[in-house]
C-alpha cells in the first residue's frame, strides 16, 4: 500500500517543561524513528482536534526524542498546554528546507531571536555547537518582552560561557529583578563582534521583529543574501499542495521555511 | 492517434460498454437561472449541462454537451469537497480509494483538460504524491468532446486554449453529421475499442477535414465574442497582475462580493484545501476540505493575525496565485477560461473585466 502522506505517526508526550507563563517545551518520543535537520518543521497533531506546524527546538542529532517549544496562542496550542506526561500526540514530517549549515562553515554566525522565536534557533545552536570547530564564532542576540518571558532561562548563561560563543539578552520592559539590557532587540545589534566580510545572520521571531531586525542588519552592512529569515505561515499540509502558505512565487512549507532576504526582497507584504 | 466514426444511434451501446467497467458520468441538459446575458448582440447559447451518473439517468436525457458543464468541474471527480484522508496511526489494509470503481467522464471539454494539468502538478508533483488523487486519476477514462458552441462566459481562446482537445484524453468525440468522429488516444481506449469494433468505421479524410472546418467556424465566432471583452493575451498576464498590485480595481470590484466562495469552489483550477480533524478521539479521522483564498480565514494564523484581512487583498491574492505563482512555477496560468467563476458570482465580479482593467492601467494597447 502507498504511503498516506496525511497520516501522522504516534508520539508519546514524555515531559512538559514550563519555560514561561505562556510557553512550554514538549518532549516527544515518536513510536518510529523520526529525524529532522535543523530548521525543518513538523506538523504536530492533537488527536481529535487538529494539527499545527512547529519547528523542533531540540538537538537534531538526538533521534529518539524531539523537543517542541510552543506558545499558547490558538486552539491546538491551548489544548497542548493542558496536556501532560503520557498523552498521545501525532507527528508528520519533517518538511521544508532547514538551515543551510554548509553555507555557514568558517563564518561568524549571528543569530537574532525574538520571544518564542528562539525555539527553532536553539536547535540551530545545538547543531552549530556540535561542530563548533567548523565555525568562526556564534553570536546570539535574544530579546523577550519581559524577564519572565525569556525562554531557556538556565541554558542562556551556560551558552554564554562556551568558547567561541557570545550571548546578549535584552527585554523590552525592565523590572527590578532584571539586571541586563532593556530595549528592543534592535538596540543590542550595535557593535556586533562579527566581521561583516565573513558573517551570516539568522533571524527568527514575530514578523514585526523580523522586519526591523532585517532593516537594521541591512543598515549595518549585511548583504541580503546573508540574512536568513524564518517565514512561518499557516502551513496546513506541509507538502506544497494545500496552498495556504504561499509567499509570492514560493510555498513557505516547501521552498522554506528558511529564506534569504535576497529571495524575498522583491515580494509584497512579506511581513504581514 | 487513430480516428473512427461512430453513428449517433450507437452512442448508448458505446456508453453501455464503458459502464460495464467504469462508473460513467454523462452530460444532461438543464435550465438554470444563472445567466450572463450577451450585451453586444451575438446570439449565444443559454443551455446548461450537468455531468450525472449514467446508471441513474434516463437514456433520452443524455445529450452531447455543446460546451462544458456548469458543474461539476473536472477536478471535483478527483478530489472531493469533503473526504476522509486518513485515520490516526492505523494503516488500513485496503484503503477506501482502491475499492472505488474507476471513473469514466464523458463530456469533459478542453478547458477541463487544461485545468487537470494544474491539478496534476499539485497532487502528483512535488516531493510527495497524493495517493488518493493518483489512483483516481490513473484509473479514470476521459472521454472529451469538441465544443461546437460556447456561452457568454467562455473565454478559453483568450489564453490560446482551443474549444476542442488534441491531447489529455482517452477518447475524444467531435460531432459530425449523423454521428461522432472519435479519436482514440491511449492504449486503454484502444482495448475498449477492440471489444466493440463493429460499431466503428475508420474515419475518412473527408470526415476529418469536415471536422476541421467545424472547429474553425467556432474559433472564428469566438474571436468575435472575445474582441468585445478585450482580454489581455496570456503573455502579459504575469506582468499586469504584478504591476497592478496597488491598483484601485481590487477594492472597486470587491464592493459587491458577498464572500459566498462560489468562484473558488466552481473553479476548475483552484486546488487549495484544509486538513481538519474530527472527533471522537478514539477513532478520530482527518478530513480534507476544499478551501479557497476568497474566504476570510484562509490565511489566518493561530495568534489571530490575518495577512489577507481585507476582501480586496483576497481578490488580489487569487489573481497573484493564478497569474504570478503558477506562471513562475509551471510556465502557464491557472485559468482555463471556462468562465464558471463569472457565471456563479452573485456580485457579477468578472475576471475578464479585471484583467482588462489591469491591462489598461498599464497603458498598453488592448487586444
Layout of helices and strands:
The complex is a heterodimer of chains A (272) and B (367).
Chain A: E1 9-18, E2 23-30, E3 41-46, E4 50-54, E5 66-71, H1 75-80, E6 88-95, H2 101-104, E7 108-114, H3 118-130, E8 137-144, H4 155-161, E9 165-171, E10 181-182, E11 199-204, H5 207-220, E12 227-230, E13 246-247, E14 250-251, H6 252-255, E15 258-260, H7 261-264
Parallel strand pairs in A: 7-8, 7-11, 8-9, 9-10, 11-12
Antiparallel strand pairs in A: 1-2, 1-6, 2-5, 3-4, 3-6, 12-15, 13-14
Chain B: E1 2-7, H1 11-21, E2 23-30, E3 48-53, E4 82-87, H2 96-99, E5 103-108, H3 110-124, H4 131-139, E6 141-145, E7 171-176, E8 179-184, H5 187-195, E9 200-202, H6 205-229, H7 237-243, H8 249-253, H9 262-266, E10 273-278, E11 285-290, H10 311-330, H11 340-344, H12 351-361
Parallel strand pairs in B: 2-5, 5-6, 6-7
Antiparallel strand pairs in B: 1-8, 1-9, 2-3, 4-11, 7-8, 10-11
Distance between the termini of chain A: 41 Å
| Strand element count of chain A | 15
Radius of gyration of chain A: 18 Å
Which two chains have the most extensive interface, and how many residues on each? A-B, 41 and 51 residues
Provide the residue-averaged pLDDT of chain B: 91
- List SSEs of chain B in N-to-C order: EHEEEHEHHEEEHEHHHHEEHHH
Q: What is the name of the CATH class of the largest domain in chain A?
A: Alpha Beta
Structural class by SSE content of chain A? alpha/beta
Query: Helix and strand succession of chain A?
Result: EEEEEHEHEHEHEEEHEEEHEH
Beta-strand level of the residues of chain B, as a percent range?
Answer: 15-25%
Shape type of chain B: globular
Average pLDDT rating of chain A:
95
Low-pLDDT runs of 5+ residues of chain B are none
Mass-distribution shape of chain A: globular
Low-confidence stretches of chain A: none
The counted number of beta strands of chain B is 11
In order across it, which strands form the biggest sheet of chain B?
A: 3-2-5-6-7-8-1-9
CATH topology of the largest domain in chain A: Rossmann fold
- Count structural domains of chain B: 2
Instruction: Give the CA-CA distance, first to last residue of chain B.
Output: 35 Å
Amino acid at each position: 500500500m502507498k504511503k498516506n502522506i496525511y497520516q501522522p505517526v504516534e508520539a508519546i508526550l514524555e515531559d512538559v517543561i514550563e519555560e514561561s507563563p505562556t510557553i512550554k517545551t514538549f518532549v516527544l518520543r515518536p513510536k518510529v524513528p523520526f529525524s529532522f535537520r535543523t530548521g525543518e518543521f513538523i506538523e504536530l497533531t492533537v488527536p481529535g482536534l487538529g494539527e499545527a506546524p512547529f519547528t523542533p527546538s531540540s538537538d537534531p542529532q538526538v533521534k529518539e526524542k524531539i523537543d517542541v517549544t510552543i506558545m499558547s496562542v490558538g486552539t491546538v496550542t491551548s489544548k497542548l498546554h493542558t496536556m501532560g506526561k503520557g498523552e498521545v500526540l501525532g507527528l508528520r514530517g519533517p518538511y521544508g528546507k532547514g538551515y543551510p549549515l554548509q553555507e555557514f562553515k568558517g563564518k561568524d554566525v549571528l543569530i537574532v531571536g525574538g520571544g518564542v522565536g528562539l525555539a527553532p534557533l536553539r536547535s540551530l545552536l545545538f547543531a552549530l555547537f556540535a561542530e563548533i570547530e567548523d565555525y568562526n564564532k556564534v553570536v546570539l542576540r535574544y530579546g523577550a518582552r519581559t524577564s519572565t518571558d525569556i525562554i531557556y532561562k538556565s541554558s542562556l548563561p551556560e551558552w554564554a560561557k562556551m568558547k567561541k560563543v557570545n550571548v546578549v539578552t535584552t527585554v523590552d520592559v525592565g523590572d527590578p529583578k532584571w539586571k541586563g539590557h532593556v530595549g528592543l532587540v534592535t538596540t543590542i545589534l550595535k557593535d556586533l563582534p562579527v566581521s561583516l566580510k565573513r558573517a551570516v545572520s539568522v533571524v527568527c521571531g514575530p514578523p514585526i521583529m523580523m522586519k526591523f531586525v532585517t532593516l537594521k542588519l541591512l543598515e549595518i552592512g549585511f548583504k541580503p543574501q546573508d540574512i536568513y529569515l524564518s517565514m512561518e505561515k499557516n502551513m496546513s499540509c506541509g507538502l506544497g499542495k494545500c496552498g495556504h502558505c504561499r509567499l509570492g512565487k514560493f510555498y513557505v512549507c516547501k521552498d522554506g521555511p528558511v529564506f534569504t532576504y535576497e529571495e524575498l526582497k522583491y515580494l509584497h507584504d512579506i511581513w504581514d | 492517434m487513430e480516428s473512427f466514426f461512430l453513428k449517433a444511434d450507437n452512442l448508448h451501446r458505446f456508453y453501455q460498454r464503458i459502464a460495464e467497467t467504469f462508473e460513467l458520468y454523462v452530460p444532461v441538459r438543464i435550465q438554470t437561472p444563472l445567466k450572463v446575458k450577451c450585451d453586444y448582440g451575438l446570439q449565444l447559447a443559454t443551455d446548461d449541462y450537468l455531468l450525472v451518473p449514467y446508471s441513474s439517468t434516463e437514456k433520452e436525457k443524455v445529450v452531447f454537451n455543446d460546451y462544458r458543464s456548469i458543474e461539476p468541474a473536472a477536478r471535483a471527480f478527483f478530489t472531493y469537497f469533503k473526504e476522509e484522508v486518513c485515520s490516526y496511526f492505523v494503516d488500513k489494509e485496503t484503503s477506501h480509494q482502491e475499492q472505488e470503481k474507476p471513473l469514466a467522464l464523458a463530456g469533459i471539454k478542453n478547458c477541463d483538460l487544461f485545468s487537470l494539468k494544474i491539478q496534476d502538478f499539485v497532487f502528483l508533483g512535488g516531493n510527495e504524491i497524493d495517493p488518493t488523487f493518483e489512483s483516481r486519476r490513473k484509473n479514470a477514462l476521459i472521454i472529451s468532446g469538441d465544443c461546437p458552441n460556447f456561452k457568454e462566459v467562455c473565454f478559453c481562446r483568450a489564453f490560446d486554449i482551443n474549444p476542442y482537445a488534441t491531447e489529455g484524453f482517452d477518447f475524444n468525440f467531435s460531432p459530425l453529421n449523423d454521428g461522432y468522429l472519435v479519436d482514440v488516444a491511449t492504449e486503454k481506449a484502444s482495448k475498449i475499442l477492440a471489444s466493440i469494433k463493429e460499431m466503428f468505421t475508420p474515419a475518412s479524410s473527408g470526415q476529418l477535414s469536415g471536422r476541421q472546418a467545424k472547429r474553425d467556424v467556432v474559433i472564428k465566432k469566438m474571436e468575435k465574442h472575445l474582441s468585445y471583452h478585450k482580454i489581455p493575451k496570456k503573455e502579459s498576464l504575469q506582468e499586469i497582475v504584478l504591476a497592478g498590485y496597488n491598483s484601485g480595481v481590487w477594492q472597486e470590484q470587491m464592493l459587491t462580493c458577498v464572500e459566498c466562495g462560489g468562484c473558488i469552489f466552481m473553479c476548475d483550477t483552484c486546488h487549495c484545501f484544509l486538513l481538519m480533524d474530527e472527533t471522537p478521539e478514539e477513532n478520530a479521522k482527518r478530513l480534507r476540505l476544499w478551501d479557497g483564498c476568497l474566504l476570510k480565514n484562509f490565511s489566518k494564523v493561530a495568534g489571530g493575525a490575518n495577512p489577507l484581512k481585507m476582501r480586496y487583498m483576497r481578490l488580489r491574492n487569487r489573481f497573484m496565485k493564478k497569474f504570478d505563482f503558477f506562471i513562475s512555477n509551471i510556465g502557464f496560468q491557472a485559468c482555463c477560461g471556462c468562465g464558471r467563476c463569472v457565471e456563479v458570482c452573485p456580485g457579477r465580479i468578472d475576471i475578464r473585466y479585471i484583467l482588462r482593467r489591469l491591462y489598461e492601467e498599464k497603458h498598453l494597447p488592448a487586444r
